[in-house]
Amino acid sequence: MTSQPRLPACDPCRASKLACDHVRPVCGRCRAKAQGSSCEYRQRPFKKTRRAIGGGPSPLNNKNDQTVHRRRSETVSSSSTPVSGPLQKPNRYPNPGYLGSSSYTTLFGQLPLGGGNSADGDGFNATPKNGTISEAMVNEAQVSHGAELIEQLHRFPHIPACVRLVKGWLATGANLALTESFTEQCAESAELILTGAQLGSRTAIEVSRDLFTHSCQPLIVNSSTTIEDFTAQFTNDNSRWESLCLFFMSVSRAALTFRSHNPPFDSEKQRRNLRRLSMYYADRCLDMSLMLDCLNDLQLMLQYENFILHTLIDGDQSFEAWRRLGDVASSLFALGYHQDTHGGSSIPDFLKALRSSTFAVSYSADKNVSIFLGRPPRINQKFCQFSRTGPDSYFSHEWPPDAQFDSKAESRWAAICAVLKEDILDISGEKNQEDKIRRASIIKAAADLQWESLPAHFKLEGPMKSQDCSPVELDKLLGTKLNYLHVLFLLRQALRRRTSDWDPELNSVAGQMLSLVVEALMLREGLVNSGTSLVWKVVYYGLAAAGVICLALLQQGPATDCVEMDTSKVFRELAVLVSEVELGTLVYKEDANYALLAGATSTIKNLIDRLSSGRFDQFRATQSNVEAAAENASPVEGETWNPWGSASVQDFESNFWLTLAEHPFLMSEEFGG
Asked: Which residue intervals are annotated with compositional bias (Low complexity) in the record (predicted)?
């Protein structure tokens, strides 16, 4: 009896040690799993394949390239846990990234021939083989483009001085919010690339190609990867375009707040020029890495830090900053972190924490900027998968008893407040006042529970100058308290039918916010900003509070005179805010946010001058007669100054101050003297 010949199994069935029906071109098991593109049969299935000695030429045949591959192979073999990362298998363009349930893959995945992939494997998820990543993603046009930037940087003579500036800034306790663990290493790596001894033996083309090659490599992690292992993949010999981007962003941030007394950056004009130039270089380096379509955790963190930098340099109202915040949201969705930031058990704890913090600060910035500018937010919580309950929930009110008040804790609190702010935005459009009040009471209870559950050492109680903590911690305490007060502020504002309605609770919260901002202005030399700047706190919290207080002063009438308000204290704090802007101690006239602050403080100063001169009583009596007559007149005949038909949580931006400046009391020559 003749034995049946052995039939080879396809590669997927052979690797999985599963039975194969040997059907060609696609076996039944691969067809059922929609893996038609990977169903291949070896030409010599029962003989070992001899490995070619030496292999093909690598993109960079030097020590650096060998170091990269050796380090990566060591990382992979260090654990039996499957390797996982944001781009473990970089895709050819277009890189789809995260694809949800409504995407095309859900439909095409039901087809029997590999989810719509063509027979040659160049379908939706086609992946370059190992060793061909560089060839597939980098072309000579990109390398030449990068070489032009490298040549510019070689001509910049102050790289060592910039590194010293960054290290001096870091020594104060300041840092970037997300990349604090590897800011200094990237600065040293940038100095090595741009001024090292090996620079003379390498051309700009070689340096550019080296950076592109490393930027193409996935950031490989497993459950045993440490933060040092992670950092080693983009520093020193493994430096990428991302490494240079992080360095130049830290230079620009350092030039904003750190006062160096050593040349060449010992004057404000020199530091201002350095800020702009460094931001330009950071933008270019970030673009180099993003053009490869190999999105990863590091690039997402850099995009967020780049957005923050543009708000500081271009201003909080600039379109460039607004656009880059949209880029952050897009990358967050593309990586799927709105659904899952943990990625399974193979992701190390430090990377899970980094991803959670990145989502938190991105989500918080999206809410705060949208409120400040009066624009729709991009990241909606109903499309995000996160739980608000349970000790392991990032948004839970439960905190570990030994929780450390660091940047991660600050980011978590900012995200918790952002969730409450989004809930407030949702009820602002509620037409039924009873439903709005009911929903507002739920939000208020949640806000109070979050604040009461916050560890005591996270809360700012008492004057700032009496706090026994470092300047960095004091700035975090200030931001935490202001964020909580802002939730209460927005909630009371949303409940008002009209912005001009008198609300003692809102006035009280606004007074607390203004007092904190003014106290921070007076003690700013004792604050070190790592997250949001002091200018942002003044613009976002201070101006909103001052706007409510100014309206309260203008809308006071006989029925509200009995309500207690420390007018003298309010006048002093408003005067401090005005003087800080006018004297140029907060912002210079050349700074982007100066126009916004100057316009608001000009209106505040006009109001203070007229109120303090005693001319308001005469105006109020005249205005009362006008309002009384208006009640019996038609809307056209009795039209008075009242630009707000209803309350909105998004009123206190620059347009608010332009409108307030047109109030009859501030415009009338009769009462203005």
From this structure: 75-84
Q: Is the pLDDT of residue 75 over 80?
A: no
pTM of the entire predicted model: 0.77
Helical segments of 81-222, H only? 104-108, 133-137, 140-155, 159-171, 183-195, 204-216
Distance CA 457, CA 476 (A): 11
Q: Are residues 333 and 443 in the same domain?
A: no
Angstrom CA distances, 15 to 20, 37, 38, 121, 307, stand at 11, 15, 12, 18, 45
Structure letter (DSSP) for residue 221: B
* Full domain range(s) for residue 359: 138-383
In a domain? residue 1: no
- Report d(CA 309, CA 275) in Å as an integer: 9
- Residues 281, 203 share a domain: yes
Model pLDDT for residues 320-334, shown as the tens digit of each residue: 999 999 999 999 999
CA atoms within 13 A on the CB side of 6: 7
262 in the same domain as 160:
yes
Same domain? 610 vs 660: yes
Q: pLDDT, tens digit, for every residue of 505-542?
A: 999 999 999 999 999 999 999 999 877 899 999 999 99
Residue 508 inside a domain? The answer is yes
At 505, list the tokens.
Answer: 């609770």
Q: How many domains does the chain have?
A: 3
Q: Are 98 and 339 in contact (CB under 8 A)?
A: yes
Residue 330 neighbours by CB under 8 Å, 6+ apart: none
